[in-house]
Amino acid sequence: MMQAALIALAAKLGASAVEKILTRKLGPATGELVADVIRSIASAAGTTPEQLPTVLRDDPMRVENAILDVESEAPEKLALYAQGLAYQLEIAKQEATGPLWTWAWRPAGMYGLGALWFWNVVFLHILNAAFKIALPPTPFDVLLQLTAAYMALYMGGHTVKDVAGKWLETRK
Fold first, then answer.
1. For residues 2 and 60, is the Cβ–Cβ distance under 8 A?
2. Spatial distance between the Cα atoms of 43 and 49, rounded to a whole number of angstroms
3. Is residue 147 within 8 Å of residue 113, measured between CB atoms?
């Protein structure tokens, strides 16, 4: 709803770069760029993205000025976005041609964790029932800690850093 209103307003103002970004005419995988533009519009309007529909309804001139401000920044945002995509593509190329150890830990870790969880939740109980034995399961807290450590490494550590930062902010 809000995005449609911003698109219509950008079209009315002639802010073609903002309009193209918000309508995803630059490609279907521009969600991060769209969110960044909406955050920039809200910031330029002196509000948050959540409050932007209210400001748009109550003070459309403020949002129009914000869209025009963001329109002037749009070429820089597009260039940074394109540079980020080029960087991701270069990393993927290097991993495809690089040594096995530089990238194989991620799928090996996924399959290894999947196997541990399958063993603990399904296969172990089938073996215990079929052979009337009592093989002990891996403690679930250990499995959760291994999974969390792997996810923290795989996601670059930024997720853990962001969560820890927000948690520490709320404790103040």
1. no
2. 8
3. yes
In angstroms, the Cα distances linking 144 to 31, 114, 155 are 31, 12, 16
CB neighbours of 39 closer than 8 A, spacing ≥ 6?
49
Tell which residue, 49, 29, 39, 26, has the closest CA to residue 70.
39
> CA neighbours within 13 Å on the CB side: how many for 59?
11
How far is Cα 33 from Cα 16, in angstroms, rounded to an integer? 15
Give the C-alpha separation, 81 to 75, whole Å: 10
Residue 9, Cβ density class (10 Å: 0-12 exposed, 13-18 middle, ≥19 buried)? buried
- Using N-to-C axis directions, what is the helix angle for 31-44 and 60-97, rounded to 10°? 150
Helices (H) and strands (E) in the chain, counts: 9, 0
Q: How confident is the model at residue 135 (pLDDT cuts 50, 70, 90)?
A: very high
Per-residue pLDDT reduced to its tens digit, 10-64: 888 888 888 888 887 766 667 788 888 899 999 999 999 999 999 988 999 999 9
